[in-house]
Amino acid sequence: MTTLRPLTSPEPDVPRRLRRPWQVYAMVMLWAIKGFQELLSGVIGTSFFVAAQAAEGRLAGYALQTAFQSIFFSTLLAAGSFYVMAGIWLGKRSARPWGIGVALASELTLLAFLITRPPEFGGTVPLVRTVITGSFVNLGIVGFLLFDGRLTAFLGSPPLTGWWSPRR
Question: What's the number of CA atoms in the CB half-sphere (13 Å) around residue 38?
């Protein structure tokens, strides 16, 4: 039977143990939910909707091109979410800037809903509720990735002190 050793243990023949802070588990869960939501509703759901509309002749030309671009953008957001999820789980340094970028891109998409007002939301109240909930999640993720000390230490990134100044 093998025993696990701490990362700082000098014994070479015993497997090392990686202690992940609770923030890593929370972030991986959030990114998995965001990725699957984008994959199911943004890619698969929109693809079926666009296929049905195009088959009926209601969607053609520029509107069809815009629908394909929306599906492609949703695919990129889903892939980015899964990349960040894996990077955070593995403790990769690149997960932090990519996570901030993908969360902000997702936030811009949510804010665009307020301008475009998609018809499937029906009224203003469900639309605003959706945008507020999504904004809370996206900006919470950005806050964790920027300012949480345990998470930044696990990812190997320098923690921030003050406003955007690295610790020296």
Answer: 27
Whole-number Cα distances in Å, 126 to 111, 123, 167: 14, 6, 43
pTM: 0.78
- Report domain extents, the chain: 22-161
* Residue 111 contacts residue 131 (beta carbons within 8 Å): yes
Distance from the first to the final alpha carbon of the chain: 43
Distance CA 148, CA 160 (A): 9
Whether the CB-CB separation of 110 and 138 falls below 8 Å is answered with: yes
Instruction: List pLDDT tens digits, range 113-133.
Output: 888 876 666 777 878 888 899
Report the distance separating Cα 158 and Cα 167, nearest Å. Answer: 7
In the beta sheet, which residues pair with residue 165? 161
